Amino acid sequence: MGKAVIIINGHGGTGKDTLCGFGGRVYRTKNISSAEPIKEIARCYGGWRGEKDERSRKFLADLKRLFADYNDLPCRYLVEEYKKFLESGEEILFVHIREGEEIDKFRHYVDIPCIALLVRRSSVRQQWGNESDDNVEKYAYDYCYDNDKELTEAESDFQQFLKGIMKEICG
């Protein structure tokens, strides 16, 4: 099996990290986010303590936009992590990116199979009051996964879904 990049997106609370964990039980995976350097700055200098409420999500989205416009920090971080992934023994790099233009920008640097996956859950809030979260579904994704199953069923269902994607894109 070759290597692949899966850009994963969805509204907050759709279970993206849980699904990445399920994937990690079948493949050697790495899970990164374009917001990670922004969260670090917000923790160290902005007083953010890891809250996931509407106010915090807007703060992080606005801060990320500022850094993307100023020095492209989110994408630069992802490209460095992608280079490390290429040298590793990992098979799948899950990359969390909210904004469509940032997805396209990162995809430009990827020269191995790369797909964009939208994770949906019908019971999850759709509007958060910031562009990054509120525009999640406006991107043209390669695949969608409806994460509406009970947790006990979701693991095997997502693993089968992921195996199908990997077979299709990596052979």
- Quaternary state of the chains: single chain
The rough form would be described as globular
Report the order of strands and helices: EHEHHHEHEHEH
Identify the strand order in the major beta sheet.
Answer: 2-3-1-4-5
Strand fraction equals 15-25%
Per DSSP E runs of 2 or more residues, the count of β-strands stands at 5
Q: What structural class results from the helix and strand content?
A: alpha/beta
**Could you give the distance between the termini?**
7 Å
Largest sheet entry: 5 strands, parallel
- Using the CA coordinates, give the radius of gyration: 16 Å
How many DSSP helices?
A: 7
Q: Which consecutive residue ranges, at least 5 long each, have pLDDT under 50?
A: none
* Mean pLDDT reading: 94
User: How helix-rich are the residues, as a percent range?
Assistant: 40-55%
Q: What is this structure, in a nutshell?
A:
By secondary structure, this protein is of the alpha/beta class.
Descriptive report:
This protein is an alpha/beta fold and 171 residues long. Helix content is 49%, strand content 16%. The chain has 7 helices and 5 strands. It has a 5-stranded parallel sheet with strand order 2-3-1-4-5, with helices on both faces. Strand 4, helix 6 (131-134) and strand 5 form a beta-alpha-beta unit. It is globular and about 45 Å long. 29% of the residues are buried. The model has no long low-confidence stretch (mean pLDDT 94).
